[in-house]
Amino acid sequence: MLKKTIFFIIIFIVSLVIIFTSRVVSADSGWDYDYDSGSSWDSDSSWDSSSSWSSDGSGIYIGGDLSDTDPEIIIAVLVILAIIIILSLRKAKQIDVSKVPLQKGTIKEELSYDEIKAIDPNLDKELLKEQVFNLYKDVQIAWMNFDYDTLRKNLTDEMYNMYSSQLKTLKLKNQKNIMKDITLTSCKITSIDIANGKEEVQIYLNVIQYDYVIDKDKKVVRGTDKYKNNVEYKITLVRNIDNKKIEKCPNCNAPIEIVSGGVCPYCDSTIINNNEEFIMSKKECISQSQKH
């Protein structure tokens, strides 16, 4: 009995080591990061869930009957395992994120000036790059400050309604997502499409920033305030070319007639006016890591 008690105490200690050394997650407006991945490092540094733990919940398999195994052997094995885990995680944290390649095919080639002018002669490539970065910063900071008006102005109906709902949940938990020191690393216009009175532009954006969540006591509960995050996005912007009435609610698809924005009478979703300037319709995280 004593041997089993020692065994499970060691298991508990090792579990705590794994939890507190590996679970460093990031935030981001709209919760675009992957929280279930644990740390934000390359998957090569992750542990196979079946490599150490048996599927029946009986713990680490050492061999033979537990009652016949000396406690010293059990302790030695578990200590070695804990050391391996900690050293592996420390090694992962030393990865230079600038040298971690993306999967092939993730990022399209940037459109040339001639290709852009052939699709939209009035589109200024460099000006649009500046606009998308400023738009991204405005959205991140508005998310941090619960600034619904700025979000409503810069997002499509679908994104605004989703962000608004998520922010209400965050506020109920007395939490705040801190976003600061946002620096642009790279920006590329990868595609432009004009159809059905709308112009849609897809952009690759790479930024470095502090991004973490604090509670009412300013304690970090998600992410980390010690290191910056290096994040790569695929962002979609959209704008209207012809100003028509909004005939269907983008949330519930109910028939409506709204010209300058308002509230859907069926689902109470906020309807954004048909914006002739570019607004954000999608923000997808395609790569994330930490900058040490």
> How much helix, percentage-wise, in residues?
25-40%
Classify the secondary structure makeup into a structural class.
Answer: alpha+beta
How many helices? The count is 6
Provide the β-strand percentage band: 25-35%
Q: What is the H/E order?
A: HHHHHHEEEEEEEE
Q: Taking strands numbered 1, 2, ... along the chain, how are they ordered across the largest sheet?
A: 1-2-3-8
Low-confidence stretches: 20-25, 34-64, 92-105
Task: Specify the biggest β-sheet.
Answer: 4 strands, antiparallel
What is the end-to-end distance?
Answer: 46 Å
**How much is the average pLDDT?**
75
Query: How many distinct beta strands?
Result: 8
- Radius of gyration (CA) equals 25 Å
Task: Name the shape in a single word.
Answer: elongated
What is this structure's SSE topology?
Layout lengths: L1 H21 L48 H23 L19 H7 L5 H20 L3 H7 L2 H16 L3 E20 L2 E17 L5 E21 L5 E3 L6 E4 L3 E2 L6 E2 L7 E13 L1
Antiparallel strand pairs: 1-2, 2-3, 3-8, 4-5, 6-7
Helix pairs in contact: 1-2, 4-5, 5-6
